[in-house]
Amino acid sequence: MSSFSFELVYQSKKSRARVGRISTPHGIIDTPNFVAVGTNAAIKAVDATTLDEVGLQLVFCNTYHLLVQPGSKIIEDAGGLHRFMNRQGPIITDSGGFQIFSLLYGGVTEELKSKGGSKREGMVVKLSEEGALFRSYKDGAKILLTPESSMRAQKALGADLIVAFDELPPYHFTPSQLEASLARTHRWEKRSLDEHSKDPRGQALYAVVHGGIDKLMRKKSADYLRELNFEGYAVGGSLGKNRDEMIEMLSYLMPHLPQDKPNHLLGIADLPSLDALIHLGIDTFDSSYPTKAARHGLLFTFDGDVRIMNAKNRSCYEPIEEGCDCFTCKNHTRAYLHHLFKAHELLAYTLTSIHNLRFMVRKMAHFRSQILRDEI
Amino acid sequence: MSSFSFELVYQSKKSRARVGRISTPHGIIDTPNFVAVGTNAAIKAVDATTLDEVGLQLVFCNTYHLLVQPGSKIIEDAGGLHRFMNRQGPIITDSGGFQIFSLLYGGVTEELKSKGGSKREGMVVKLSEEGALFRSYKDGAKILLTPESSMRAQKALGADLIVAFDELPPYHFTPSQLEASLARTHRWEKRSLDEHSKDPRGQALYAVVHGGIDKLMRKKSADYLRELNFEGYAVGGSLGKNRDEMIEMLSYLMPHLPQDKPNHLLGIADLPSLDALIHLGIDTFDSSYPTKAARHGLLFTFDGDVRIMNAKNRSCYEPIEEGCDCFTCKNHTRAYLHHLFKAHELLAYTLTSIHNLRFMVRKMAHFRSQILRDEI
Lengths: 376, 376
Known about the structure:
The first copy, chain A, is of the alpha/beta class. Chain A has helices at residues 48-54, 63-68, 72-78, 81-85, 97-105, 108-112, 147-157, 175-198, 215-228, 243-253, 271-277, 289-295, 327-331, 334-342, 347-372, and strands at 5-11, 18-24, 27-31, 33-37, 59-61, 91-93, 124-127, 132-135, 142-145, 161-163, 204-209, 232-235, 263-265, 284-287, 298-299, 306-307.
């Protein structure tokens, strides 16, 4: 079992972009790379063996969801998340904080639409310096999530990469609220690191840089967390109310993150964002968007998106993308996929998810080769 | 491309059961065998390539559904059903009659519950000697299904085995109504054979023996259809209001079917029925039950059914069935499948369907070896 390390393979002469290699106990992650989201210990409609064939090097599972169903003990008793879901390659879990605070405050989109998270506030029973007490959406049981219990849960799950427990401040926080939230997040991340250090088990702990949409607080967060010497650095929380604001914030922030550690961007990997951000030197990007888009019939190609439900695909006997080497493109036509969607066949979701995931693998390999040629 | 033939491999000394081999342009079907139902040119949640791995030798597609979506022209232009769904092995299609008359009369279960098919009668616009005019449930377009148009549709689809157009008489028919229905079914089947014979295309046409729950009419049907010299003989329509009545009817009827031709039982392949009927010499059985059961978490094993949602499977780290060689049993535990069902993950349906289909393949192989040893 090899331990965690991050190796710089090539630094672009043109930008901050770099090609790297993260080593974990379950294998290598070539960077920059895409991280598929398998919230419930399963990528929706795709088996773990298929993920290997697709070439996906890192899968993201959500601690909050797994605590609620099936509970960390079931997975620990199975021998950990890898054995539970039969995943051979690397896995990353988050702290559970994101979901808790999404429940409490709602997401930024909902906030901007003034929907807030009020109707779900009852799910979070108590928020204090210790952590957050919430109710399971499954059976109403109370679950306490603290930096320490999040670390213990993530150790029970046994992912290769784990994430410090943080508070996700809502977009609408005032500067003083944001400052208080950031201070508490830092205390929680320090407690996460202390708990983790007692029993590292070969897992690598990532910090989460916060500070909302305030550049100085973002820098302050990066500076503080750098000193604590985590093994990786993720960027979390709201980065603005649209893509342009996000790009501006990350262009400012990324140079303040440790360059000798892998950098991760939480929850963002749509194609326009990737194209806009890849030069900043971010190493890994996770998102459920490629599989969600697939289940809605939106398929990715190097020539732009294909809407499989478009009438012209009804009688198109070509693959989704000429030259794609995925299982779906090698075996099936757009006409068949169009039919499967029309007929509401579950098989549609599996086949299109495989294509979009393989596209992401090919897209990231393409980015790496561009970086190696100083084209990015 | 080999043509259709049926070869007797072994006749049991103990019963009418026999081991046989049906040759088709797309390969061999060892008999007796189970036929999986892929109504919309897809087994629900399972890709055609996976079916090959499972060892399924024959797949049943429904002409009625395919006429409505995507329409026979789309499939013909794809190069036929095999290329459309990427199925290498043999396929059988039905005539469309069953669904039309199920819409008109309702199924036997609904009839016995006095629900009839009245609410759906509007779907069948006109029933006459020529055939049945019905409305597409998709877009309301009128579609005329006659013996000739059913044959032409099935030739466009291009399955290896096709089925004559018949009327499905409802359970409540009076003897005189049943007799009139049988006479018309026979005229329709003769017209099907005449249309088929103009352009056989290497397809084998199966007759459907009718006569409802009247033994003499069943015999009359078998005698009449035998003379027309179809390439296979299926048993269709209501065989009674419960399994015992069905077994009694088939015990009486099967000896009247041609023994030198393959015999098929339409729509029945649940395990108790198979165990009760296998000695009668029926060669193929189709049913959607194994995949439907799988999607409801009812899993087959040689030691009896497993209800995966049962609480004891929550922490059972064993495969569904010890010794099963299916993909699911080789890679996943009951605990994981239990979790996937609880989390409503689509992957659950794929994995359990694979197991139940593989079980059916193993079960039928077991029957064949029992017949070869004169144990059945």
